[in-house]
Amino acid sequence: QVQLVESGGGLVQAGGSLRLSCAASRSIFSINTMGWYRQAPGKQRELVVVIRSGGTTNYADSVAGRFTLSRDNAKNTMYLQMNSLKPEDTAVYYCNARLLSVYGFNDYWGQGTQVTVSS
After folding, report:
1. 3-class SS shares of the chain: helix, strand, coil, % to 5
2. What are phi and psi of 89, to 5 degrees?
3. Alpha carbon of 99 to those of 39, 72, 78: distances in Å?
4. 31, 72, 48: which is closest to 57 by C-alpha?
5. Distance between alpha carbon 45 and the CA centroid of its chain, in Å?
6. For the segment 53-95, what is each residue's pLDDT rounded down to a tens digit?
7. What is d(CA 37, CA 10) in angstroms, rounded to the nearest whole number?
8. How many angstroms separate the CA atoms of 85 and 93, rounded?
9. Dihedral angle sign, alpha carbons of residues 89, 18, 115, 39
10. How far is 96 from 30, CA to CA, in rounded Å?
11. DSSP string of 29-53?
């Protein structure tokens, strides 16, 4: 199992920046896949970016070039640097960890952090 705690959300004007953090309760080396998702009001949760254990990342087209995922392995923490924010980036952002086993996989989620971008 793994517990995830997000922080760093807030209110920012369009064009501004925020950095989200996701602290894990275990070594992130041991986690197969981690990522950030977001859910806007009235919409389904969507993938923002995922990083696999080998280090490869995949960004949603809507954030590519503006958002950057990074990790601090010593702190067991993943970050999402968000630049050039747009009002449509407004959502609750969730940290995700996926652990694989012989039985399949289990997804773990943080509590979410609100990001609001004003126009």
Report:
1. 10, 55, 35
2. -85, -5
3. 22, 19, 16
4. 48
5. 12
6. 888 999 999 999 999 999 999 999 999 999 999 999 999 999 9
7. 16
8. 14
9. positive
10. 14
11. GG-SEEEEEEE-TTS--EEEEEEET
